[in-house]
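Practice problem: predict the structure.
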Amino acid sequence: MIFARIIYALNWMNVGAIFFLMGPDLHAGVSGLGTLSATFYLGIGIMQIPGGILTAKWGPKRVSVIGVFLASASALGTSVMTTIPEIAILRFLVGSGMAFVFAPGVVIIARLLRGGKSGIGVGLYNSAYDVGGALALFGWVVVAEVTGWRLSLAISGGLGLLSGALTLLLVPRDQTNLVSSIGRGPLLTILRDRQLILVGLGMLGFDMSNTIVSSFMIYYLLSINAATATVAGLVASLVTVVPIFTSLWAGRIYDTIERHRVTMTIGIVGSATALALGAFPSLYAAVACTVLAGIVCGVGYTFGFAGARDLNRAGKEYEGLAIAWVNSIHLTGSVIPPILFSFVVEKLGYAQGWLWSAAVTLLFIGPILLMMEHWRR
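Answer:
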């Protein structure tokens, strides 16, 4: 599961990392990158609920394997496409497949860990994602420069297929407490749960910094001639390297403190501050932006997903669906950051793109403040 999560993140972020090589071949600029990022998030967002329903009916392992193979095959197919619309369709399918992976993975990891603690399980799983993100944002820049962007995408897709095969062979069988059908009552209990909705909306504040930095930082630094491709990749990778540690730390904190709402609020302020730092056109400001974004995202995502599991009131067999619902809200909303950022950049320039994104981020403090303070079951 950890290896599959690493490759999952690689196929999530590698297009943003190597778009500076793809763009000239595809005759596309920052708006093309915004389109590919938005369609990916649309796929991974709207397919979360179907993935959660299937997790409850078929079991988390089976659904996770299906998702890994769909996402990986689509990532592999991206390597031979020749236009932005063609790649956008496949990026939507990559996102759709990944929607079938995350929530089942959280359930599996939590059940395999002794004691089933939500914070530690989600922290470990998120750290694996961050390892893969660092591999995408730094390592895949180097790979793409050496092999070409098409072969680099083929390699990452092939690694995804391998991770799917390993998951199928090595992860223990699903437990037998599956549901034959999703009753209207439990489904509506989850979809109408005010606390779950507020968690999902609040997590959009962390998506603003994470999505924009991971999707655009390399292209931005190269556009303003602030760094070489290798250095730009190294800087951008900090947004995923830092959470390797802060996710695990946040998991321990989540399991021991009670004031989760306060922590999430502070984190969103940090997310906005990180984006504001990006408005300064220098390498040092970019480093500060990515480091701070990495710190707060590691905390925010761990608290959000662990909270989704603990706030679920529909029964243990619906844990995956509750996590999927929260994931659906914030990932579908993540269509906004790349569209907003690329639109403002084209009209007003990069500095305004960063500042407008920071201002919008602060709006997501509202949902967190409306939540109840105690999340523990």
